[in-house]
TrEMBL record:
It comes from the Bacteria. One of its GO terms (molecular function) is ligase activity. This is Ligase-associated DNA damage response exonuclease. Keywords: Exonuclease, Hydrolase, Ligase, Nuclease. SMART domains: Lactamase_B (SM00849). Its EC number is 3.1.-.-. The keyword Oxidoreductase does not apply. PANTHER family: BLL1145 PROTEIN, CLEAVAGE AND POLYADENYLATION SPECIFICITY FACTOR FAMILY MEMBER. Residues 8-170 form the Metallo-beta-lactamase domain. It comes from Sphingobium psychrophilum.
Length: 330
């Protein structure tokens, strides 16, 4: 089946279109699902992606050449019909739907099924071959309700008015989602952000994602940040930058916070299980929903999801893709 699409360690090659999906090495023609560094990079000859993803790539990697593809818009390339549909992962993220020789292949990139105020929701597309991530492809990963995690964050803030809450969140997608989820819970106080967040938050605002009042945390007296939330990259939680903050309650927003050992290793006082990836139930429910003849599994814990497919009479294979990391470790 689908001999015209070839998985390689460095990406998925669409032979009739002479194009690569999310290649990890520079290619002349690249179809990119979203802006995270394990899927997007600079150096390609030409990129096809959503307008938002092209803007993110321009900001992060200096990518200059690209064709914007709107959600639902069709592009023809070497006899292959290519369509981008929302993946629900981060701003501009897309699944790439390929149709050729009477077959349909859906390459999801990264995706989630939970509501997210910063991006369009995932759209299931029935297909013959479904290429799915498996970042949280183990039954232990069942993410709690996002609102309840935000309530825990706000409760910690209100219970400690002389301290601040420092939230580690990946600079693309997670940080903006945390901020918007807080606004949705009625928290309209200024939120302080690490300097590494400023340009990406501004880009989100340019695309219509309102985040309320954000203030740079650099150069602010510690006393002025008491009773406030500060958002930084995970790498800044325990470095010299954070030592000037007013007795911070250290939090981290990640699906990996389900694993207590990870929280302890990172000295996280308030683990928040908030992920931009599908959990185990969402992965398996999505496979059932799109009803593929065959499932290709990549980007994570392939073995458990491969076994689940086999026990449900779904043909499946694991792809050995290089350079695929998760949302907070990349």
């Amino acid at each position: 089946m689908a001999h015209w699409i070839e998985p390689h360690p460095t990406g998925i090659y669409v032979r009739p279109a002479d194009a690569w999906i999310d290649p990890s090495l520079p290619q002349e023609r690249a179809l990119v699902t979203h802006g995270h560094a394990d899927h997007a990079r600079g150096g390609h000859g030409h990129v096809w992606a959503t307008r938002e993803t092209l803007a993110i790539m321009g900001l992060r990697y200096g990518t200059a050449s690209g064709t914007a593809v709107g959600y639902g818009e069709e592009v023809r390339m070497g006899g292959v019909t290519i369509r981008y549909v929302p993946a629900g992962h981060v701003l501009g993220s897309a699944q790439i739907v390929l149709e050729h020789a009477g077959e349909r292949v859906v390459v999801t990139g990264d995706y989630k099924r939970r509501p997210d105020p910063t991006c369009k929701p995932f759209e299931p597309v029935p297909c013959d071959i479904f290429v799915t991530e498996a970042t949280f492809g183990l039954p232990v990963f069942r993410h709690p309700d996002t609102g309840s995690e935000m309530d825990r964050l706000l409760a910690a803030l209100h219970a400690n008015p002389d301290r601040c809450v420092l939230v580690g969140a990946y600079a693309l997608g997670k940080a903006q989602r945390v901020i918007c989820e807080l606004r949705a819970r009625g928290h309209h106080d200024p939120i302080y952000i690490h300097g590494a967040m400023e340009r990406m938050c501004a880009l989100y605002e340019e695309f219509g994602v309102a985040m309320g009042e954000l203030r740079p945390a650099t150069g602010v007296a510690a006393k002025d940040m008491r009773g406030h939330i500060i958002v930084s990259p995970p790498s800044a939680l325990n470095d010299r930058w954070s030592r000037r903050l007013p007795d911070p309650i250290t939090a981290m927003a990640s699906g990996w916070m389900r694993v207590r050992q990870r929280a302890r290793q990172k000295n996280v006082e308030l683990p928040l299980v908030i992920s931009d990836h599908a959990d185990w139930d969402e992965l398996t429910d999505t496979i059932r929903e799109v009803a593929p003849t065959e499932t290709w599994i990549t980007h994570g814990r392939e073995e458990a999801l491969l076994h689940w497919c086999m026990t449900h009479q779904i043909r499946a294979r694991a792809l050995a893709m290089v350079g695929r990391e998760d949302e907070d470790e990349g």
